[in-house]
Structures are given as structure tokens and as C-alpha cells.
Amino acid sequence: MKKLSIPLLAFLTATASALYIVENLLMSALPVPFLRIGLANVVMLYLVYNRYILAAFVVTIAKSVIGGIATFNLLSPTLPLSLGGGIAAVIVMSLGLLVRPRFSIFGISILGALAHNGMQLCLARLLIIRSPSLFVLTPILIFLALFSGVITAYLCIYIEEKYIAQKAEI
User: Fold this and answer.
1) Long-range contacts (CB closer than 8 Å, 24 or more residues apart) made by 92-97
2) What is the pTM of this model?
3) Which residues, in sequence order, are CB contacts of 120 under 8 Å at separation 6+?
4) If residue 149 lies in a helix (H) or strand (E), which one and from where to where?
5) pLDDT(10) > 90
6) Which long-range contacts (CB under 8 A, 24 or more apart) does 131-136 make?
7) Is the pLDDT of residue 90 over 80?
8) CATH of domain 6-169
9) pLDDT at position 77, please?
10) pLDDT band at 94 (very low <50, low <70, confident <90, very high)
């Protein structure tokens, strides 16, 4: 397992937290509260795909806690949903790296999005809505996971290419 420098870890944590907060505030205006692309997950995808697994866990937990504080949702059910979904996504994406033939970054991203949505659905059933009718949302969440997984992978590739190009100029 590779290690990340503390300043880079802090930068990535701040970036993920800022993306999480902005997306949370923008999407809360929509009538569907669970509709999110998960822009902060670009950071986790970058970390996992580059084998910084421990750093991905740290950023995931910090992002959820910092985002919960900043959006005044720290003591609401959104914190366990965010933490559970994020941790499940990091675990599944990390396991996806072990599969042969190897998944592309798109496959890893979609796996993470599916795990995130699946865990959030299970936690919502356990903590909020104690009715099995909640699982009617499963097809919608699978579609959203496919969509957001592809967008997250594209963003991760784009940002990494820009980072490499800028680093080469220095």
C-alpha cells in the first residue's frame, strides 16, 4: 500500500470536502433529496485507482464529517448514510482492483457508485424508513450509479491529465 504526503492528503481532503459541501447545497434545492452525482468521489476514485487505499479511507471519513459540520447535518441521518456509502465504495473499488482481467477506471468508478448507493439504500432501510417498499428505488439508484460512475471516471481522467501536463511544464 502506497503512502501519500501529509500536505497532499490535506489538499485532497479539503478538495473533497469543498465539492461535497457545494454539491450538497446546490442539490438540496431539488425535490428529490437523494439525487447527487457525487463529485467529491472523484478524489476517492483517484486515490483508490492509484493505490492510495488508506488515504482514500481517511479522505472519505473526513469529507463526511467536515461536510456534515459545514451543512449542519452532523447529527442527522445523512452522516451515517454518507460514511457508510463512502466506506463501502472504497472497499468495493479496492477489491475491484484485485480482479483479473483488470477493470478500467470506468469499471472501478461504477463499482464504487453501485456500492455507495446500495449501502445507502440498506442504511436508509435500517435507520430511517423501516419498510421494504424502500427497495422500489433500487432500479433508479442503479441507473444513477451507472451515470454518476461514468461522469466521475471522466472527471478523474480529465483532472489527472491536466495535473500531469501542468507538472511536466514545471
Assistant:
1) 93/44, 93/45, 93/48, 93/49, 93/56, 94/48, 94/53, 94/56, 97/48, 97/49, 97/51
2) 0.91
3) 34, 81, 84, 85
4) helix 138-169
5) yes
6) none
7) yes
8) 1.10.1760.20
9) 85
10) very high
Residues 166, 167, 170: CA angle, nearest 5 degrees:
95
Rg of the chain taking only CA atoms, in angstroms: 16
| Residue 24 to residue 46: CA distance in whole angstroms | 21
Tell me which amino acid residue 93 is.
Answer: M
Which residue from 66, 91, 93, 72 is spatially nearest to 153, judged by alpha carbons?
A: 93
CA atoms within 13 A on the CB side of 129: 12
Mean pLDDT in residue range 109-114: 96
pLDDT, residue 1, reads 63
